[in-house]
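Incident log, structure service

09:12 report received: a user says their structure output differs between two submissions of the same chain.
09:20 pulled the input from the user's history:
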Amino acid sequence: MNVELKNRIKAHILEEPKRLDIHNWFTSLRHVRPEQRPSCGTIGCFAGWAHILAGGSKHDVVNVFSFARELQIDYSLADKACFLNSWPKKFLVMWNAAKSAKQRARVAGMVLDALESPQLWERREQT
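09:34 re-ran on a clean worker, output below:
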C-alpha cells in the first residue's frame, strides 16, 4: 500500500472537509451551493483525490482501477472503499450519523486508515 499517498489524501480531506464527495469522482461546482464549495474549487472522492495528489489531472479518467493502482491495493478493497454501502458497518453508521462535513471527513479518514487492515473489510456485517 502507498501509505504516503493515503496519508496525503486523508490530510487533504481533513484540511478542508468540503473537498470530499464520496459519491462522485469529481463534482461540478455548478451543482454545489456556494456555502458548500471548498476554496480550492475542486470536490472529489477518494479515487479522485488519489489521482490528483499522485500528479494526475481532474480531466483524466478516474475509476476504481486507478484508485487501486495509485494506492497499490487490491482492486476488491479499492472497490469497497469507493462505495459507501460497501464500507464496514461501523464506518457506515458513523457516516450516516455525521451532522457536518467535518464529521464526515473524520469518518473518511478512518476509512482510509482501515485500508491498511484488509481484514476489517472481509466480513462487513460483523464490523
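09:41 both user submissions now match this output. Likely a transient worker issue. Closing.
09:42 reviewer note: The CA atoms of residues 50 and 56 lie 9 Å apart. The mean pLDDT is 84.
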